[in-house]
Every structure is written in C-alpha cells, then in structure tokens.
Amino acid sequence: MGKRWKALAVFAAFLLSLPTGCGTAEDLNATDTAKEETAAGTDTGGKGETAGESQTAGAYTYHVETEEIAWNTSDGEAALTVTLEYPVFEGDTEAEKAINSFFRNWVADKMASYEAEPDSLAEEALEFGESEVSAGAAPWADDYSVAAVTAVQGVISIRQDNYLFTGGAHGMPGRENHIFSETEGSEVTLASLLPLSEEEVNERAREAFLSRIEEHPEDGYFEDASDTIRAKTDFLSQSYLTQEGVVFYAQPYEIGPYASGFIEVTVPWKDLGL
C-alpha cells in the first residue's frame, strides 16, 4: 500500500494544551473539532508507554514496562493494536544492565518488524481493515505479557506469553523464554546449564509427557498424542524454568485441542542432574 504511519501526537499535544479549569463553550467546541480531525486522519496510530509496580525475583527487583502502538485505517478504525510488556531491572549490576539493554533492543526490533517491507503485520492488517470483508470484524492484535521472572540455578529466566489475533474465531497463543547468566547478563541456553546431554534431557521430557498422557486420558488428548511425543526430537525449545525444575510444554493443537492450551510437564532439577 506504500503508506507511512504516524503516531497520534497531535491529539496528545492538544490535550496538554487544554486549560485546567472549566472550559468555555468555545473551548469545548475546539476540543471536539480536534478530536474529529485526529480521528479522520489517514493512517494514524497511537503510541504510549507505562510502567508497573516493583516486583522481586530472588535477590532482584524489577518492574514491568509496557509499550503500546496502534495502526488505524483511513476512516479512523483500529486495524492493528500491539502491546509489548518487558521487564526492567532496577539494580545496577552488570547483569541487570545487560538484561535491560537486551529488552530495549527487543522492543526496538519488534516495533521495526511491524512496519518492515514487504508484507509486514501492520501492512497486512491495514489492507484487511480497508477491505469490504472487514466490516464488523475485530481489529488484529499482537500482545506480549511478562508471565514469569525466575532467579534459579545461577540464571534469570524470563517468560513472555504472546497472543496473536489476525481474524477468525480466535487467535493463537505463543511463548518466548529467555535465560540470562546472573554474572554477566548474557543470554544462555538451557542445554548449557545442564550436565546431561540434549538427548538425555529430551528423553526425560518425553517420559514425563508419555506418563501424563497415560495417567490422565480424561484431559482429551488427540488419539495420536503418544506417537507425536515419541517422534518429537526437540523438547528444549519449548520450555521455561521454575524453582521446582524445567517445565516442558506442547503447543495448542500439538497433542491436544486448542481449548487445552499449553500442555505442560515439570521435570525436577534432580532428574536433570542438578
């Protein structure tokens, strides 16, 4: 479409210029006019940032910050909304500084990807929003939330949950998990933390899933769920850390219906050699 997107700075600046007391009829009319002009602008978008309350993970204190942006169609209807949550550590250790830098870059890369040419998510959402078939449809959305921050085994594990909606009956959930060294703040892999080989870790996860499927058939697994687990060769890429051990999960539709969500098993640290 070749459109260029702008933030809704016009409306925000206007609000800041309003008088603090009771406005006259002329003031109120001017406000309404500004709102109408902003809403009618072509390809406008809004962007904002918020910060949450301090939380703790082990010896670390952090808060969650949120960056939001929206792309609107030419008639002012929302085409795509994006919400990015990420942790900000409040200490001054090298590790915390490095993790904060990682997530600043993560936000910047995510934001850039929405407008990257060709066929970016924003571009596709705007094309759909301008089409006749979009009448009455909900806007597209891509949301990331901080689900867990865990300090364990000399690392900091940060899990982000994602929900992507591009029309239809429902969106698709996803997950990202990042593991950082407590000493340097560099990103490390799960395999590098464990004394077992990747094949041995995969086998521990496979056994845990097969046990769950056998012991809880009432959970409504697909008929070929056990076969899918036996054939799977990479469990490490779908995992996150807790104080109890490593949680391995199957994606929706992988071994069960969408309604089952992420199907999880926990392998204790001691069973992984720690």
Kindly summarize this structure in a few lines.
With 274 residues, the protein is of the alpha+beta class.
Estimate percent helicity: 25-40%
Shape: flat
Q: How large, in whole angstroms, is the Cα Rg?
A: 23 Å
Topology, number of strands? 13
CATH fold assignment of the largest domain: Heat Shock Protein 90
CATH architecture of the largest domain: 2-Layer Sandwich
- Pick out the low-confidence regions: 1-44
Mean pLDDT: 86
End-to-end C-alpha gap: 54 Å
Give the CATH level 1 class of the largest domain: Alpha Beta
The CATH superfamily label of the largest domain reads Fervidobacterium nodosum Rt17-B1 like
The proportion of residues in beta strands is: 25-35%
Overall domain count: 3
Structural class estimated from helices and strands: alpha+beta
Number of DSSP helical runs: 7
Report on the biggest sheet.
8 strands, mixed
Series of H and E elements: EHHEEEEEHHEEEEHHHEEE
